[in-house]
Design a protein that fits this description.
This protein has 102 residues and is mainly α. The chain is 64% helix and 0% strand. The protein has a domain of 61 residues. Helix 3 runs antiparallel to helix 4 and helix 3 crosses helix 5. The model has no long low-confidence stretch (mean pLDDT 88).
Length: 102
């Protein structure tokens, strides 16, 4: 999702608002899955994975989403550990709402 026509969806995702992003159901399920991994990976359920399959995602795509979500969690934890903050130029409109959510 790139370009001006996706600006509203990108801003909604940046702020963690899946409702406002207007995503197709399958993509939303995949992002919810990634969010579960990022917040509490032990809460991923067989039903959640089966829902992704029913939405058309292959096992390979589901696994790749799991790997990416886990790696991003690792990167965030390492950055937090070492106090690494992105340069302000990367966040011109401030800290994303998704980061400040509990």
């Amino acid at each position: 999702m790139q370009g001006e026509q996706y600006a509203r969806a990108a801003e909604a995702l940046r702020n963690g608002d899946l409702d406002a992003a207007g995503l197709p159901p399958g993509e939303r399920l995949l992002l919810e899955f990634a969010g579960t991994i990022a917040r509490a990976a032990h809460r991923v359920t067989d039903d959640q994975v089966e829902g992704l399959r029913r939405a058309g995602w292959t096992d390979e795509q589901i696994a790749e989403a799991a790997y990416v979500a886990a790696l991003f969690s690792l990167f965030v934890r390492l950055a937090d550990t070492f106090g690494i903050e992105p340069p302000a130029i990367y966040e011109p409109t401030g800290i994303p709402g998704a980061i400040s959510r509990g």
